[in-house]
């Protein structure tokens, strides 16, 4: 890995792409294998009734010494993000619902090549700011 690059797990949940630092990812498993006592991270308030049904994957992460589950509809894989791909999240869009992110990154996709390559924005999760929601 080059200096100035960071490794992340790219996943999709609740209509958004997210990047979770690879250093805090313990494993990815099927949501059906979730221990009912495992707290889920309170991402975008997804733990409201009925919201977990479309989340096929469970990302188990170490967030500031706490093991939390994060639900995901799709897990794209590992990506390298360079510092110049990272942008601060404007204060105007920050709220209590997204308190665990303060920046986003432009991430390329496999669709197209060169100038035709597509970029998408993914929110970078700050693991220490994720809070467990109520256990379901």
Write the layout of secondary structure elements.
Elements: E1 5-13, E2 16-21, E3 25-30, E4 57-63, E5 66-72, E6 74-82, E7 86-88, E8 101-108, E9 119-125
Parallel strand pairs: 2-9
Antiparallel strand pairs: 1-2, 1-6, 3-4, 4-5, 7-8, 8-9
Overview of the structural elements:
There is one protein chain. The protein has no helices and 9 strands. The strands form 2 sheets. Strands 6-1-2-9-8-7 form a 6-stranded mixed beta sheet, with no helix packed on it. With 136 residues, the protein is mostly beta strands. 24% of the residues are buried. The chain has one domain. β1 and β2 (16-21) form a beta hairpin.
Cα Rg: 15 Å
Q: Provide the succession of SSEs.
A: EEEEEEEEE
Strands of the widest sheet, in order across it, are 6-1-2-9-8-7
Overall, the morphology is globular
Low-confidence stretches: 46-50
Helix segment tally = 0
- The secondary-structure class comes to mainly beta
Secondary structure: number of strands: 9
Q: What fraction of residues sit in β-strands?
A: over 45%
Average pLDDT reading: 79
Instruction: State the end-to-end distance.
Output: 39 Å
Helix content class: under 10%
Largest sheet: 6 strands, mixed
Number of domains: 1
């Amino acid at each position: 890995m080059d200096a100035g690059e960071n490794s992340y797990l790219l996943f999709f949940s609740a209509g958004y792409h997210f990047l979770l630092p690879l250093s805090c990812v313990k494993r990815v498993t099927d949501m059906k294998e979730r221990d009912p006592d495992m707290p889920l991270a309170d991402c975008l308030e997804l733990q409201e009734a009925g919201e977990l049904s479309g989340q096929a994957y469970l990302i188990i992460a170490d967030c500031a010494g706490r093991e939390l589950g994060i639900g995901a509809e799709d897990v794209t894989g590992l990506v390298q993000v360079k510092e110049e791909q990272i942008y601060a999240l404007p204060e105007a869009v920050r709220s209590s619902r997204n308190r665990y992110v303060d920046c986003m990154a432009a991430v390329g996709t496999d669709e197209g090549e060169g100038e035709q390559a597509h970029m998408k924005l993914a929110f970078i999760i700050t693991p220490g700011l994720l809070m467990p929601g109520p256990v379901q």
